[in-house]
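Field notebook, page 138. I keep forgetting to write these up properly, so this time I am using the form the group agreed on. The chain and the ligand, nickel (II) ion, are recorded exactly as supplied. Prediction of the bound pose follows.
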Amino acid sequence: MSELVRFGVSIGTDLLGRFDKLIESKNYANRSEAIRDLIRQNLVAEKWKSSDKETVGVISLVYDHHQRELTEALTAMQHDFGEGAVSSLHVHLDHHHCLEVIVVRGEASAVKKLADRLIGVRGVLHGGLFPTSTGNEL
Ligand code: NI
């Protein structure tokens, strides 16, 4: 961890009051930790905007595994992504439905493209991409 620096921030009382209520509801121990998280959130968001930076994403898919050739299609797409498809977790939700959670590492644009392809497969009922980070430069 790098050296800590203290700095002053000028902010209106109304805005600060709303911020304090927000961080209290999110159980932050103090303003400093809340502000650090806001900064990190913005840094991660910026990284996802530049297509050539290495990122980590979590893709979730809920699907009906009785849909013909669906599981094969999802598996083939992950194989095509190679080592970038780091790991996956499969949950049998009920007789029909499965939840798959896939951790993906690679350039943001490639991860987004893979997520779109997976979510677009017929029989996928709900899907999402949670953009996160390698943890570097945070
Ligand atoms: Ni299943």
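OBSERVATIONS:
- The chain is about 40% helix and 30% strand.
- The first strand starts at residue 54 and ends at 64.
FOLLOW-UP: compare against the apo run.
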